[in-house]
């Protein structure tokens, strides 16, 4: 349990970084979302013809060695590239001079739901085709899920708490929340936190297609991710990274930092119901949302906007809506709720990272990004205000961001204006 003094240590956001299919930095990413642009198209990195789902939100026109040392790029996986570059953006955005800071008081917590899938597949092919002696000695360092955190720490010489979390599609949100706790309990003053994922590969597609989890609307990729719509038929995979710079309020003020907002609440829970299907009563998510809001010192009626997990799968959208209605009661009908996965695709372990960036930009700009492709809400199960088709101008003081993962794991974050 946090001590009273730790509970009073406020945590703020001072830097943002993002690499996504709709923009390789925060500015272009946010501009595309507000314009309702989809990053989903037919997969280009491999021939998707044999697969039931042939679409993805890929990061295109991207060469890692243009953003980081070419030697380091060759020795690391695509998921590490995304997280490393997004972290670099976030540090630059924060204005932190890490050479002047005490590196013992700065940590890194960047999670990945799957880790180095490109490395895993490519080196298995080397083993099969050329034998064990040809397998790269960098295979293990490339594919393990904590390596992005390690490489970011090496880049900046920061020696505080450092590890990678894994909780499937709740990973990025859990990483940010646990980084918040690290600052609150006094183990760090600054944390670089978020999620990164690069799982648009043949093997990953084969496995998700086998589960019947991905959309098969291959004839119109940009319209395939349609959260809360009656015609939704599964998620569309995305890739990229979203990273935040978190600081104690005292540290940020002492250096005169520009503060985006406060990360005021976080909670984690488990459905304890099924390995892939959400609890049909929404109990686990309801618990995470209510605890996060309470820890933020708010009531449900204080939340202005929810960035929903909203995966465009039949079960998630229905049960997430149910949980929201149970917690918020009459206020649920007044809430703005949107799923930006309709544009970015589902970034799995990085979803909580980029959706936290979205939550923060919503507070900063007073603009709510839409749920595109919502042509026919799935009534009566999906009957909230999902901000369909076009962005909405609205003053927003407090945002709740939800993420759910296989295994029944839930995470909710609350960001609020200062």
UniProtKB/TrEMBL annotation:
Pathway stated in the Swiss-Prot or TrEMBL entry: Lipid metabolism; fatty acid biosynthesis
Molecular functions per Gene Ontology: 3-oxoacyl-[acyl-carrier-protein] synthase activity
SUPFAM superfamilies in the record: Thiolase-like
PROSITE patterns in the record: KS3_1, KS3_2
UniProt name for this protein: 3-oxoacyl-[acyl-carrier-protein] synthase 2
Pfam family of the protein (one): ketoacyl-synt
Biological processes per GO annotation: fatty acid biosynthetic process
Domain Ketosynthase family 3 (KS3): 8-417
Highest taxon above the source species: Bacteria
Active site: 169
NCBIfam families: fabF, PRK07314.1
Enzyme class, first EC level, given as a word: transferase
Protein family: Belongs to the thiolase-like superfamily. Beta-ketoacyl-ACP synthases family.
Annotated InterPro entries: 3-oxoacyl-ACP_synth-2, Beta-ketoacyl_synthase, Ketoacyl_synth_AS, Ketoacyl_synth_C, Ketoacyl_synth_N, PKS_Beta-ketoAc_synthase_dom, Thiolase-like
Function of the molecule: Involved in the type II fatty acid elongation cycle. Catalyzes the elongation of a wide range of acyl-ACP by the addition of two carbons from malonyl-ACP to an acyl acceptor. Can efficiently catalyze the conversion of palmitoleoyl-ACP (cis-hexadec-9-enoyl-ACP) to cis-vaccenoyl-ACP (cis-octadec-11-enoyl-ACP), an essential step in the thermal regulation of fatty acid composition.
Organism: Cephaloticoccus primus
Recorded catalytic activity of this chain's protein: a fatty acyl-[ACP] + malonyl-[ACP] + H(+) = a 3-oxoacyl-[ACP] + holo-[ACP] + CO2; (9Z)-hexadecenoyl-[ACP] + malonyl-[ACP] + H(+) = 3-oxo-(11Z)-octadecenoyl-[ACP] + holo-[ACP] + CO2
EC annotation from Swiss-Prot or TrEMBL: 2.3.1.179
Keyword Transmembrane found: no
Keyword Lipid metabolism included in the entry's annotation: yes
Keywords: Acyltransferase, Fatty acid biosynthesis, Fatty acid metabolism, Lipid biosynthesis, Lipid metabolism, Transferase
Organism ancestry: Bacteria, Pseudomonadati, Verrucomicrobiota, Opitutia, Opitutales
């Amino acid at each position: 349990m946090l001590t009273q003094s730790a509970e009073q240590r406020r945590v703020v956001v001072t830097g943002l970084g993002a690499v996504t299919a709709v923009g390789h930095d925060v500015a272009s990413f946010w501009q595309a979302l507000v314009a309702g642009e989809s990053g989903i198209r037919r997969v280009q990195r491999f021939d998707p013809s044999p697969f039931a789902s042939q679409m993805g939100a890929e990061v295109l026109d991207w060469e890692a060695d243009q953003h980081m040392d070419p030697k380091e790029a060759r020795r690391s996986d695509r998921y590490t590239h995304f997280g490393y570059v997004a972290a670099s953006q976030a540090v630059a955005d924060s204005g932190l001079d890490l050479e002047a800071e005490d590196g013992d008081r700065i940590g890194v917590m960047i999670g990945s739901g799957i880790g180095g899938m490109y490395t895993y597949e490519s080196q298995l092919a080397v083993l099969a085709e050329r034998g064990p002696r040809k397998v790269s000695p960098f295979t293990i360092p490339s594919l393990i899920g904590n390596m992005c955190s390690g490489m970011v720490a090496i880049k900046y010489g920061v020696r505080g708490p450092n590890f990678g979390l894994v909780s499937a599609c709740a990973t990025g949100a859990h990483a940010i929340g646990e980084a918040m706790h690290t600052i609150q309990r006094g183990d760090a003053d600054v944390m670089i936190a978020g999620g990164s994922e690069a799982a648009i590969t043949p093997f990953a597609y084969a496995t998700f297609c086998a589960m019947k989890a991905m959309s098969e609307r291959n004839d119109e990729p940009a319209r395939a991710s349609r959260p809360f719509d009656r015609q939704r038929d599964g998620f569309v995979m995305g890739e990229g990274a979203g990273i935040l710079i978190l600081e104690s309020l005292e540290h940020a003020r002492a250096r005169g930092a520009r503060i985006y907002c406060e990360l005021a609440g976080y909670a984690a829970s488990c459905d304890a119901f099924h390995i892939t299907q959400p609890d049909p009563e929404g109990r686990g998510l309801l618990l995470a949302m209510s605890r996060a809001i309470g820890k933020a010192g708010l009531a449900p009626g204080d939340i202005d906007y929810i960035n929903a997990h909203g995966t465009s799968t039949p079960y998630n959208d229905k049960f997430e809506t149910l949980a929201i209605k149970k917690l918020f009661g009459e206020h649920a009908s007044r809430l703005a709720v949107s799923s930006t996965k309709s544009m970015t695709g589902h970034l799995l372990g990085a979803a909580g990272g980029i959706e936290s960036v979205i939550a923060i930009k919503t507070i900063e700009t007073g603009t709510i990004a839409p749920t595109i492709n919502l042509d026919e809400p799935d009534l009566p199960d999906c009957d909230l205000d999902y901000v369909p088709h076009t962005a909405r101008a609205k003053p927003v003081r407090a945002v709740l961001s939800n993420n759910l993962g296989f295994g029944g794991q839930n995470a909710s974050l609350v960001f609020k204006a200062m």
